[in-house]
Design brief:
Layout (H helix, E strand, L loop, with lengths): L4 H13 L10 E8 L2 E5 L8 E4 L5 E7 L4 E5 L11 E8 L1 E3 L8 E2 L17 E3 L22 H6 L9 E4 L5 H11 L5 E8 L3 H13 L6 E6 L5 H19 L4 E7 L1 H14 L13 H9 L13 E9 L8 H9 L2 E5 L1 H5 L12 E2 L8 H24 L7 H17 L9 H12 L11 H15 L1 H10 L4 H17 L1
Parallel strand pairs: 8-12, 10-14, 10-15, 11-12, 11-13, 13-14
Antiparallel strand pairs: 1-2, 1-6, 2-5, 3-4, 3-6, 4-5, 7-9, 15-16
Length: 500
């Protein structure tokens, strides 16, 4: 290949024209200590709090403790390939997760990577996991009900869209069951659900996902799972990742229900992480900012006003108590942040009353404003009737000869308790709840045998659907029981009881 001198000069000129000086400037630090998912890094003067740092082998970490001469960093992956003296780069980004409609129906880990074997998630949009909660001006008061489909909750401790209702109780009292039922009941109600599993067994999460698939609820549900085998930092960021994904839908004007299952394990993961970072321990060895840990998470649930799209995030955080102790550190913290709590009791659960809701200790601080008018009118006396029944029941254990009024109240209370029982995965439309609660509060069931009350309920609801369906339609559309519907309901009750 022979080149003439003039060609050589033209080639050199072309090369000079196309020359680009590319200088890669990035601040690099050094690992001085690593272990237990925590790395100490020296030499990153410009690191921000919460910034992602890149280690060898592609492992990322989050800068947590910015100290005078080093940074305490938690690793979002295995620390096996990282050793002392390895370089660490600043990325300039804070921890973010992918968001968008493509996540619905998927199971992802705490950093938004799919773990359900259904291929990658095609979304280009991300959001930082930490964010300031909506302010007072952007919010709207809670007055739209979020129907759980569970009679005792919709009647006595109603939940509204944008509310934070704590579900609290010992282990194995049905806390998760209530949340899964509520998710199943959102079918066709234009509400997206996010279920965040923190520190649970992988088999438990798999069972919940299977239930959601079997009931068709997975079509509007997104599952974020940081299982017990994941590191403490991943369990710590899981709920923030979940709420970041939920906020994307809320800002599009949609309603979202998010379940944190459970925040006790979240606090334990944060405690492990903080102690390894050598932060000073406080009460029960939790760090001093454990209140802020949950308040900044739960405050992100809100109902936005129309100027901001009118979307909402309703949160159902779960807390597990030890031997019913509601006055422990984490339970009292979370009770003080939420708008009420549903308290589940082991004794009620073991005696066969399920869902095992203690009506005396459960409260909704939003109250009747999160109920439709028909439910508000009927459910009013139930709580008082149950409280009187409890008192009389404990009193009647000592006395044998009871007067007629006391016997009637005990008899009525037992029927109310029986109607409030509900099997798992059998949620109910609000109009059906109202019809059966109307029957029991107006003492139509007081002369039915106790062991036939459940049968009466099932058959009567079918009877109304077949012969008096207008009652259901009326309640659904008007949100009240009109006088003519009430008259129809009385006729239906009289006709059905005659043949039962």
């Amino acid at each position: 290949m022979n080149l003439r001198p003039e060609e050589i000069s033209s080639v050199i000129k072309e090369q000079i024209k196309g020359y680009k000086s590319k200088l890669d400037v990035s601040e690099v630090g050094t690992v001085i200590q690593v272990g237990d998912g925590i790395a100490r890094v020296y030499g990153l003067k410009n690191a921000m709090a919460g910034e992602l740092l890149e280690f060898t082998g592609g492992v990322v970490g989050i800068a947590q403790n910015l100290e005078e001469d080093n940074i305490g960093c938690v690793l979002l992956g295995s620390d096996e390939g990282i050793k002392e003296g390895d370089p660490v780069k600043l990325t300039g980004n804070v921890a973010s997760v992918p968001v968008g409609d493509d996540l619905i129906g998927r199971v992802v880990n705490a950093i938004g990577q799919p773990i359900d074997g259904k291929g990658p998630i095609k979304t280009s949009k991300t959001r930082p996991i930490e964010r300031v909660a909506p302010g007072v001006i952007t919010r709207k008061s809670v007055d739209v009900p979020l129907q759980t489909g569970i009679k005792s909750i919709d009647a006595m401790v109603p939940i509204g869209r944008g509310q934070r209702e704590l579900i609290i109780g010992d282990r194995q009292t049905g806390k998760t069951a209530i949340c899964i039922d509520t998710i199943i009941n959102q079918k066709g109600k234009d509400c997206i659900c996010v279920y965040v599993a923190i520190g649970q067994k992988a088999s438990t999460v798999a069972r919940i996902v299977k239930t959601l698939r079997d009931t068709g609820a997975i079509d509007y549900t997104l599952v974020v799972a940081a299982t017990a085998s994941d590191t403490a930092p991943l369990q710590y960021i899981a709920p923030y990742a979940g709420v970041a994904m939920a906020e994307e839908f809320m800002e599009q004007g949609k309603d979202v229900l998010i379940v944190y299952d459970d925040l006790s394990k979240h606090a334990v993961a944060y405690r492990a992480m903080s102690l390894l970072l050598k932060r000073p321990p406080g009460r029960e060895a939790y760090p001093g900012d454990v209140f802020y840990l949950h308040s900044r998470l739960l405050e992100r649930s809100a109902r936005l006003n129309e100027d901001y799209g009118g979307g909402s995030i309703t949160a159902l955080p779960i807390i597990e108590t030890q031997a019913g102790d509601v006055s422990a550190y984490i339970p009292t913290n979370v009770i003080s942040i939420t708008d009420g709590q549903i308290y589940l009791e082991s004794e009620l659960f073991n005696s066969g009353f399920r869902p095992a809701i203690n009506a005396g200790l459960s409260v909704s601080r939003v109250g009747g404003s999160a109920q439709i008018k028909a439910m508000k009118k009927i459910a009013g006396p139930i709580r008082i009737e149950l409280a009187q029944f409890r008192e009389l029941e404990s009193f009647s254990q000592f006395g044998s000869d009871l007067d007629k009024d006391t016997l009637e109240r005990l008899n009525h209370g037992r029927r109310v308790m029986e109607i409030l029982k509900q099997p798992q995965y059998k949620t109910m439309e609000v109009e059906k709840e109202i019809v059966i609660l109307y029957a029991v509060t107006n003492k139509y069931l007081d002369d039915i045998d106790l062991d036939r009350v459940a049968e009466f309920e099932t058959e009567f609801l079918k009877f109304v659907e077949a012969e008096y369906n207008g009652i259901y339609t009326g309640i659904r559309n008007d949100k009240v029981i009109s006088e003519e519907n009430e008259a129809l309901l009385k006729t239906a009750l009289a006709r059905f009881k005659a043949n039962f």
